[in-house]
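> forwarded from #structure-qc
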């Protein structure tokens, strides 16, 4: 923190860090070492200190170059902090640094390698879980009725699919493509209510072969798409549930891309390898259809709902007042620092003048003394 100043103060980020430790990592933090914090940041620290308890304050250690080795060994410290570690980080350029995210008219699309690697990892984890569950089941019972198990699994799948599609509204408009009929035709509707946090995409296979499909999004961290990569029989329909993840909110800038390709009969025999199929299929045989997000007018963002609450408005006003006071306090600290610098400069000048006068006085006394001794 040696070169930090007023421009580095971000109270919202500090609150975020405090809440992360309180909610997600309680009792995990042993010590937080702050190295060479400038005195101008002390005003901000006085405010942050009021947000912490005595236990949290005791875990924060303010150290300088002489005290840091009480907590960290010299071999693990860089040389500018008084240590012996000469390691210097340098960013190694990767072969695909010049790679540009694929763009389409509706926005960037997640690359195939990323989705396929995620899908492979998910399939491997599912296989290991299934194998472990099967081994435990074999140990518990020697005789297993596979017909009953398959029926139970089918019932569970039906329950899961119905529970996923229960809260999602059926789309009305239809886009008629050469391979699939896709509903809705243009927009997925989302809102802030529980029943509006899910949207449904219905695919109808209008070909005479298996059709493989993939669904991509420009915001994969916000949405969960189930299923996102699969295939289905000719003449059948498939429901895809798109749901918002956690406390994320939908945005009109979010886009979805539905990709579909017809699979040959030879490819469809047995269990198709979709990852290999998407690598080999020509781009000319891939059907693409884009969907955009529409946020319903009835659903307002949580920030607007909180703003309408008079209690929240009072809290917000108080926070703004505190923020303005902090800014004024920091500005006054800066002025004090400038005045102190001026005083130090003036003090140095006075010391120089006093030392000069002392030297002149001593030389004059020395000359008088030598003249008298000669007389």
């Amino acid at each position: 923190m040696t070169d930090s100043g007023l421009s580095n103060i971000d109270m919202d980020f500090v609150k975020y860090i405090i809440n992360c430790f309180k909610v997600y990592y309680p009792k995990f933090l042993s010590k937080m070492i702050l190295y060479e914090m400038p005195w101008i940041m002390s005003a901000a620290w006085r405010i942050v200190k009021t947000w912490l308890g005595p236990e949290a304050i005791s875990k924060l250690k303010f150290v300088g170059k002489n005290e840091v080795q009480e907590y960290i060994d010299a071999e693990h410290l860089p040389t500018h902090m008084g240590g012996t570690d000469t390691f210097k980080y340098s960013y190694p350029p990767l072969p695909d640094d010049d790679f540009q995210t694929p763009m389409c008219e509706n926005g960037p699309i997640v690359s195939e390698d990323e989705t396929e690697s995620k899908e492979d990892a998910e399939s491997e984890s599912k296989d290991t879980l299934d194998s472990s569950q099967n081994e435990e089941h074999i140990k518990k019972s020697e005789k297993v009725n596979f017909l009953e198990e398959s029926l139970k699994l089918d019932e569970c799948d039906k329950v899961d699919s119905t529970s996923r599609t229960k809260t999602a509204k059926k789309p009305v408009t239809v886009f008629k493509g050469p391979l699939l009929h896709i509903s809705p035709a243009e927009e997925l509707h989302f809102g802030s209510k529980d029943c509006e946090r899910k949207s449904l995409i219905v695919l109808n296979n209008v070909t005479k072969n298996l059709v493989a499909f993939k669904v991509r999004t420009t915001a994969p961290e916000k949405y969960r798409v189930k299923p996102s990569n699969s295939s289905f029989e000719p003449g059948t329909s498939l429901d895809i549930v798109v749901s918002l993840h956690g406390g994320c909110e939908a945005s009109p800038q979010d886009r979805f891309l539905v990709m579909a390709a017809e699979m040959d009969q030879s490819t469809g025999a047995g269990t198709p390898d979709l990852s290999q199929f998407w690598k080999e299929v020509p781009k000319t045989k891939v059907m693409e259809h884009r969907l955009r997000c529409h946020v319903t007018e009835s659903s307002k963002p949580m920030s607007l709902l909180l703003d309408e609450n008079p209690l929240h408005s009072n809290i917000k006003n108080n926070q703004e007042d505190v923020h303005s006071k902090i800014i004024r306090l920091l500005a006054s600290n800066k002025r004090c620092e400038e005045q102190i610098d001026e005083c130090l400069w003036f003090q140095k000048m006075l010391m120089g003048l006093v030392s000069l006068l002392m030297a002149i006085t001593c030389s004059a006394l020395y000359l008088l003394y030598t003249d008298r001794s000669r007389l």
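QC bot note: The longest strand covers residues 286-295. The mean pLDDT is 75.
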